[in-house]
Amino acid sequence: MDHTDVSVLPDDLVVEILSRLPLKSFCRFKCVCKPWLAFSSDPNYRKKLPKIPTGIFCQYQDFDKKATKLLSQPRNVEKIDGSLSFLPHHLQLELMDCCNGLVLCMHRSMDWSRRTITCHFIVCNPATQEWTRLPDTRPYQEHDVCEAMLAFNPSCSSQFYVFNFRWNPLSSFFSGLEVFSSDLSTWLVYDAWWNSGIRTIIGYPHLFIDGSLYLFSLRQNSVERILVLNGFEAMSSRIPPNRRTIKLPRDHSVEPPNGLPVGMYTRGRNW
């Protein structure tokens, strides 16, 4: 079998090949030669190549006190404000999610006369300290719980999406879904589309990769399915995203996680 010298391959083709590698493999292949190493710092190619995590955002809460910190390598500490102090209400913000360099935060306000809560979301880029405040969500009852997730793929588009699931802890069923599209700058309500008896677990990790959002779905008190949402571009025309489920083998179903002690918890997000 003839072996082709990699130096004769066009740079665009090499970058296209490297962009399809897992992060660990990409880091190893950077050591093959200096030109491959240079690709990772070239602004024209960096958007396509796998991103190396800068650190992990962690939020600590001890009753009514919150603190957000960025756990990272020493060389990154001075460049990024890990406390997110450049954001308004940063001491009251709850760290909700991170996705490909963007961070989703939230704080709540209570209408005591109506016993309803409104969520106020902020999406920011800690590296540039750019941020945007999303429109307020619909008020929800104080006994309901909201779980928000961020979807962002900079290699495909500068648009991002925020999924805000409304959950009734008494039944463990999600009762509603509203999605913010940065393209439309508004929340899209999909309650009727979503309210189909699907139970998705709060506290289990979710994953956004290759334009699809993956979540665990609960059935008969164990995780037996993975819910997949994709086709977000159609939401620009107010069309609901595609939805399908992946059934796990019976011997791979897992039990839902136990709750953390009341009053103190830690939440970590890869960034």
UniProtKB/TrEMBL annotation:
SMART domains for the chain: FBOX
Record domain F-box: where: 3-49
Origin: domain of life: Eukaryota
Pfam families on file: F-box (PF00646), FBA_1 (PF07734)
Protein's UniProt name: F-box domain-containing protein
Gene3D superfamilies reported in the protein's UniProt record: 1.20.1280.50
